[in-house]
Amino acid sequence: MTRSQLTGSVSARRYGARMAKTSASPLYQCSECGWQSTKWAGRCAGCQAWGSLEENARTAALRPGRAVLRGLAPVTPDVPAVPISEVSSAEAAARPTGMDELDRVLGGGLVPGTVALLAGEPGVGKSTLLLEAGALVAENFPVLYLTGEESAAQVKQRADRIGAIGPSLFIAAETDLAAILAHVDAVRPAMLIVDSVQTITAAGIDGAAGGVTQVREITSALVGLAKQRTLTTVLVGHVTKDGSIAGPRSLEHLVDVVLQFEGDSRGRLRMIRALKNRFGPTDEVGCFELGEFGLIGLPDPSGLFLSRLHQPVPGTCVTVTLEGRRPLLAEVQTLVCKVEAHEPSRRVTSGLDYARVGLVAAVLQRRANVDLARSDIYAATIGGVRLSEPALDLAVALALAGGTTNLSLPADLVAFGEVGLAGEIRSVAGVGRRLAEASRMGFRRAIVPVGIEPVPADSPIQVMRVADVRGAISAGLGLE
């Protein structure tokens, strides 16, 4: 046998042994996304979750097929299938919570048997919101508020301050699932509030409170309880550093409604939006003002985002953004400062997307000859609101152009539109609603993209259609 034949034979034996070992090794599957691996790892390569890989020696069970079906036998269902025309929809009617802004986001209220997850940063006001909502619901139905992070006395102190007191609002400080079930049996509430799901534990389940396994099993048990007893349940969830909901990703799939409560801790504005809603829309937003005596609904929050200056100031522009279906007026302020040749320029944003502001600045310099080189650019919004809609691009562009030339826009002018890399102004959705809101707030001129739907002849607002940033600067500032 030659050297090459011997080497090939040895390589084949080694390769075959390696393949046999790989095929015989157990598979590990991610409990979050289903990603599989032949080796254990601390972090899933599919969804980047930590500690979610679980060993399963029977690889056939990870690929359901005919073998699974052979072991199943048909059973008689508890409730037979009926024609959809005979199903009553009365049980799925939403019950208002009494908070108009919350009901707007939910689509009219909470459906009996719904399991909702409310997430938000620490200190944003989640407990205050649910305590107020629970007190309003308790005027007609019994409500059980379970707190795992505070004592009953601390919750009572907050309830006294915001006026959330009622004989049908029951409070218990509990972290054990078995004790929670006992409280539910004793009170028999129509609404259950758990603050928060990360603090609840159950005997017989591995892991500490807030762990992936504990949170998943606790939520599954509470969902089963809600469906079995038609019990409206609201769970409070924590968030991670990047703003996503803490815990397993399956947590959001288990519940019916996912609500995000957000706002700047230094400001008073709070917004709630639905990320998932099986019984209503997901494009609505509710606005609240957090004060000393709790949350106050804001049916008309546009005035919070305007500076109300008596004289126009260079570098400012008012725009109309859509938060869900609701149009909101907001003011964009910019400051452009020249720097020395040896100093690096800075870009600072507050409430605006940093990347979008940099894109608009580059388009202005390249397509409209606005001199922003060797300049510090500061861009911010009013009232602590965070805006990321592309329709804000035109307002940012006009504000930067005005700040550079020290010219101010008319006080009764609004502008909205998306700016492209070629300098063109692209159309945006909801132009009619934006113009109607601007007209209601007293604005009489608007710079909008070309190609929008026709404006009613009796509209009190004058519409100026522009095709590119050069035309927008000419229409707003009178510059060529």
The poorly predicted ranges are 4-24, 59-64
CATH architecture label of the largest domain? 3-Layer(aba) Sandwich
Which structural category fits the helices and strands?
alpha/beta
Q: Report the count of strand segments.
A: 21
Question: How many helices in DSSP terms?
Answer: 12
Total domain modules:
3
Structure in words:
- This protein is an alpha/beta fold.
- It folds into 3 domains: 10-64, no CATH class; 94-299, Rossmann fold (3-Layer(aba) Sandwich), CATH 3.40.50.300; 303-477, Ribosomal Protein S5, domain 2, CATH 3.30.230.
- The chain is built from 12 helices and 21 strands.
- It has helices at 3-24, 66-70, 100-106, 126-137, 152-162, 177-187, 212-229, 250-254, 354-367, 393-405, 431-440, 469-477; strands at 27-30, 36-37, 53-56, 115-120, 143-147, 169-173, 191-195, 232-237, 257-262, 269-277, 285-291, 294-297, 316-323, 326-338, 347-350, 375-381, 413-415, 418-419, 425-426, 445-449, 462-466.
- Strands 6-5-7-8-4-9-10-11-12 form a 9-stranded mixed beta sheet, with helices on both faces. A 4-stranded mixed beta sheet has the order 13-14-16-15.
- The longest helix has 22 residues, at 3-24.
- It is globular.
- The relative contact order is 0.08.
- Residues 4-24 and 59-64 have low confidence and may be disordered.
What does this entry show, briefly?
This protein has 480 residues and is of the alpha/beta class. 29% of the residues lie in helices and 23% in strands.
